[in-house]
């Protein structure tokens, strides 16, 4: 069993938020989901819901939202995998912030949305040529995966309607 709280606590206390959100090294949390088992991708949903949010709710970690926002900004300046990770953290944050049961204890999605989406659009060509992680399922690679996730955000979570992924 993965100790998400312990992993989150170590990342926060060692100022390793980028490594945590990218699932690097000791912060990697294997992702088991519809055919993605065994692919070197981290479990952003569990890191947020079972790790970061639980740690935040323990108290004494009021600075976690700011750490995440700064980490996302840094990731958005990185390579396509870092941009993809930033997008997936954004996607998961929206899901947890908008649900009716056990909502997120803090909200960051609206703050990180512009920087994440700008990074996605700036990296469209590279994302389209990257078939790692979920990119293998789409003829246009990770760009196709992100288009699918944005459509879900638009239809199910009433956000990102200002972004036209088809016309980009």
Task: Report on the architecture of this protein.
About 3% of the residues have low confidence. The relative contact order is 0.11. It is globular, with a radius of gyration of 15 Å. Helices cover 58% and strands 0% of the residues. Helix 1 crosses helix 3. By secondary structure, it is mainly alpha-helical.
The major pleated sheet works out as:
none
The total of beta strands comes to 0
The shape is globular
Average residue-wise pLDDT: 84
Q: Approximately how much beta-strand content do the residues carry?
A: under 5%
Please give the share of residues in helix.
55-70%
Q: Alpha-carbon distance between the termini?
A: 41 Å
Helix-strand pattern, N to C?
A: HHHHHHHH
Number of helices: 8
- Low confidence ranges: 34-38
Question: What would you call the structural class?
Answer: mainly alpha
What is the alpha-carbon Rg in Å?
15 Å
Quaternary = single chain
């Amino acid at each position: 069993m993965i100790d998400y709280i312990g992993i989150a606590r170590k990342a926060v206390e060692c100022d390793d938020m980028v490594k945590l959100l990218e699932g690097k090294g000791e912060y990697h949390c294997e992702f088991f989901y519809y055919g993605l088992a065994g692919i070197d991708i981290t479990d952003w949903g569990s890191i947020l819901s079972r790790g970061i949010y639980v740690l935040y709710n323990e108290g004494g970690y009021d600075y976690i939202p700011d750490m995440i926002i700064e980490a996302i900004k840094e990731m958005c300046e990185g390579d396509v995998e870092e941009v993809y990770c930033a997008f997936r953290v954004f996607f998961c944050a929206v899901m947890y912030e908008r649900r009716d049961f056990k909502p997120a204890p803090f909200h960051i999605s609206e703050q990180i949305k512009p920087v994440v989406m700008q990074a996605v659009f700036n990296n469209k060509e590279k994302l389209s040529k990257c078939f790692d992680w979920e990119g293998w399922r789409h003829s246009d690679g990770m760009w196709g995966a992100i288009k699918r996730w944005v459509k879900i955000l638009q239809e199910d979570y009433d956000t990102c309607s200002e972004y036209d992924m088809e016309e980009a």
